[in-house]
Amino acid sequence: METLTDKINHLIDKYNQAKKQEKMDLSSDEDLSIAIMNLISIEEHFFFTAKKTGKDEYFDLLKQVREIRKELLKKIIKEYEGEVWCISKHLLAASYRLMEVGTKSLGVDKKEEAKEMFGKAYQLYSLFWAINMKLVNTDDIKKIEDNALDKNDQEKKNLWGKLGELIKKAVDCCIE
């Protein structure tokens, strides 16, 4: 049975091969995911502005932004089951909000709090990619040791550490 480490190494190999052949650009998908985070935030702002001002025209703008966000999210999430679409959207939204909280914490010189928020934001962002790159397999879920991803996992890092390392290797935003 293939372990998660084998799957990660296989994915990285596939990514490197595709990158050489210019068929795949995960850095563009990463940029797109950040744009989607911002669109979700814009939807929220239009909602609150409509309610605070009593002007329903903001709901029309919200609807237009939502349609753009849905169209762009389809470029990253091509196949999904159950509620993976909504889970993905909420993972991006929560990640973005935690980055915002972290940035505000930095602004008032709360560096440790900022670091904690940034860490949680990255965990959620990594989970978004793990789900949508099909690295999280729920088919054979059974009780395993704490911090292990499958029964063959021997590393001591927890899920978040492993996903974070994978995303660092697979998604490089500096590829031009």
For the terminal residues, how far apart are their CA atoms? 37 Å
* Uncertain stretches: none
Total count of domains: 1
Give the helices and strands as they follow along the chain.
HHHHHH
Number of helices: 6
The mean pLDDT is 80
Strand content: under 5%
**Considering DSSP H and I runs of 4 or more, what fraction of the residues is helical?**
55-70%
Compute the CA-based radius of gyration.
18 Å
| General shape | globular
Largest sheet: none
DSSP, total strands? 0
User: Which class do the helix and strand fractions yield?
Assistant: mainly alpha
Oligomer description: single chain
Structure description:
- By secondary structure, the protein is mostly helical.
- It has one domain (25-137, 155-170).
- Helix content is 70%, strand content 0%.
- The chain has helices spanning 4-20, 26-53, 57-76, 84-107, 111-132, 159-170.
- α2 runs antiparallel to α3 (57-76) and α4 runs antiparallel to α5 (111-132).
- The protein starts with a helix and ends in a 6-residue tail after the last helix.
Keywords:
176 residues, 6 helices, 70% helix, single chain, mainly alpha
Could you give the topology of this structure?
Elements: H1 4-20, H2 26-53, H3 57-76, H4 84-107, H5 111-132, H6 159-170
Helix pairs in contact: 2-3, 2-4, 4-5, 5-6
